[in-house]
């Protein structure tokens, strides 16, 4: 029987062996996912075919991005089905059509800004859009900044610096916005999500999270909810401690937890377990798609175990089907 995660109104059935790829294809790490207006799933991954497109049943439709992307990291899709592809390997954000035509590139490919300079980009991680179409970019591994751009890619402003105080970041890993223009930033190694207004003014933070990595705003304009992907322990000292993830948490607009999916007994490849949730998307039916960087994470979580072949092939993509009574 498929595993069921969550409780009450937030129960999800794990769809095992979801992705049906051409023979010999492997996704390896799935850095991020997005769903378009027709419920097609875009799988931004670190395999030989960086963007794999599936239907909602997991059937392969097409791929693109071969030779274009260096290292997949973040993916966002707008109301017109334009994809914003964040590549932390060549320090760029590319706006693309759903068949892979590049419409806009922000950043200079393979030319990172100096480490912690605050200038865009040094291993940028994700994007989000304001209600006016302005582009926010979280940046990232070699910076501790959020940058705001015009819709055509001109820098408006930046904020953030390294640290643990409000408005400071320790791996600014993901970013989301809501219909009112609030900006939500996954401050991963500070174990929190910080909330800002559209100009970068700090408002509040959500705590009681463990290495928040993926971040998705959903639930409608009047009462948004958020799904947060949390990584498990990254240090040997607490590797086997329970209740630290990896897992998904569902919270309301004030950061209050509504539900939690998995993570009680650590990572794993069994149905109902996670490896390293890194990207999230929901389709029109409320089903959740989870991209995981299980290949990269494997030696951290399982240093003495051989990685199963399925992890590299398809296991880094999961579908959680909402249970409807």
UniProtKB/TrEMBL annotation:
InterPro entries: 6-blade_b-propeller_TolB-like, NHL_repeat. Coiled coil: none annotated. NHL repeats lie at residues 128-152, 160-199. It holds the Pfam family NHL. Gene3D superfamilies: TolB, C-terminal domain. PANTHER family: BLL1368 PROTEIN, PEPTIDYL-GLYCINE ALPHA-AMIDATING MONOOXYGENASE. This is DNA-binding beta-propeller fold protein YncE. The keyword Ribosomal protein does not apply. GO terms for molecular function: DNA binding. Transmembrane segments: none annotated. Keywords: DNA-binding, Glycoprotein, Repeat, Signal.
């Amino acid at each position: 029987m498929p595993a069921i995660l969550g409780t009450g109104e937030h129960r999800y059935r794990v769809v095992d062996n979801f992705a049906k790829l051409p023979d010999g294809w492997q996704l390896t790490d799935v850095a991020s996912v997005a769903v378009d207006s027709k419920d097609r799933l875009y799988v931004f991954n670190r395999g030989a075919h960086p963007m794999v497109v599936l239907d909602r049943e997991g059937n392969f439709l097409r791929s693109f991005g071969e030779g274009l992307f260096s290292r997949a990291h973040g993916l966002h899709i707008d109301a017109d089905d334009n994809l914003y592809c964040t590549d932390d390997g060549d320090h760029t954000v590319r706006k693309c059509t759903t068949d892979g035509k590049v419409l806009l590139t922000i950043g200079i490919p393979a030319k990172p800004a100096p480490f912690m300079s605050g200038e865009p980009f040094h291993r940028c991680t994700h994007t989000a859009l304001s209600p006016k179409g302005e582009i926010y970019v979280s940046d990232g591994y070699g910076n501790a900044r959020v940058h705001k751009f015009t819709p055509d890619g001109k820098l408006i402003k930046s904020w953030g610096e390294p640290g643990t105080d409000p408005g400071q970041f320790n791996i600014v890993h993901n970013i989301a916005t809501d219909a009112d223009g609030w900006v939500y930033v996954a401050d991963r190694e500070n174990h929190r999500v910080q909330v800002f207004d559209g100009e970068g003014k700090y408002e509040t933070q959500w705590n009681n999270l463990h290495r928040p990595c993926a971040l998705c705003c959903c639930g409608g304009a009047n009462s948004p909810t958020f799904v947060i992907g949390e990584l498990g322990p990254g240090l040997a000292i607490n590797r086997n401690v329970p209740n630290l993830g990896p897992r998904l948490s569902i919270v309301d607009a004030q950061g209050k937890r509504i539900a939690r999916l998995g993570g009680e007994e650590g990572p794993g490849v069994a149905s109902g377990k996670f490896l390293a949730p890194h990207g999230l998307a929901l389709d029109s039916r409320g089903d959740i798609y989870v991209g995981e960087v299980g290949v990269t994470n494997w030696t951290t979580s399982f240093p003495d175990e051989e990685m199963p072949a399925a992890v590299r092939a398809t296991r880094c993509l999961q579908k959680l089907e909402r249970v409807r009574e």
